[in-house]
Amino acid sequence: MRAKITYAVTAAVLVVYFVLVGSRGVLLIQNGTLITVTFGVAVLILPVIGIWFLWKNTQFVRKANRLAAELDAEGGLPVDELRRTPGGRIDRDSADEVFARRKTETEDAPDDWRSWFRLAVAYHDARDTPRARKAMQRAIALREGRPPAEA
């Protein structure tokens, strides 16, 4: 729940920032000189890119949460079997062990979105966020019946 609240607050702050930056871009364009119009257009491009990025990330999170809910209803969510350090961090060797099992499971069933979901969690636990995201994107594509993007 804490992650959802953090995401919502961050998204809200970004939207406010985009509005502020966008208003500055409009003011620059309204000034009417060649240089201010050029800068105004350039400034307006930044919020457009930011809004697109925020939208795509929000879609990704919602789809991943839907998969998690479905897997939970089936009783197939991965169990947290990781050892932790005294400070609460995941033990690296433990994450590597679980990752090896999840990788083998995914290699045995490459068209099963459930195994890709669990692999994404294992990548995340092993602190490999880019691969975790790609594995989750593949799980989402497989669940939606789309051909997964090749890495």
Features:
151 residues, mainly alpha, Serine Threonine Protein Phosphatase 5, Tetratricopeptide repeat, 5 helices, 77% helix, 0% strand, elongated
Brief synopsis:
With about 150 residues, the protein is mostly helical. It is about 75% helix and about 0% strand. The protein has 5 helices and no strands.
List the helices and strands and how they pair.
Blueprint: H1 2-31, H2 34-74, H3 92-108, H4 113-125, H5 129-144
Number of helices: 5
Q: How can the largest sheet be summarized?
A: none
Low-confidence stretches: none
Structural class: mainly alpha
Number of domains: 2
Helix fraction, binned, reads: over 70%
Distance between the termini: 31 Å
Q: What is the 3D shape?
A: elongated
Task: Determine the mean pLDDT.
Answer: 91
Q: What is the multimeric organization of the chains shown? A: single chain
Rg measurement, Å: 21 Å
